[in-house]
Amino acid sequence: MHCCRVTDLSCKEVINICDGTRYGYVNDVEVETAEGRVVSIIVPGPCKLPWLFFRRDDYIIPWDAIKRIGEDIILVDYQVKYYPRREKRPWFKLRY
What we know:
mainly beta, SH3 type barrels, 4% helix
């Protein structure tokens, strides 16, 4: 059995085997803490305008849709849907 770290996944590009679409690189991983298993990988959506840093919604790809994890790429078989970007919560709140 081959083990992989989350940081190793972030260096791999996600490609759909159905139509050859390149979605980008893994940005985050969703883990179910009660069972300790990976639920999905999250890939940031493409930029709306090339010269601006605004992004579309994230791609959330379920772990079951992953067909193969190679040295450089992750092959998926899934009709990817857009999901709204999650709000980033600050690590701390300032109280006055």
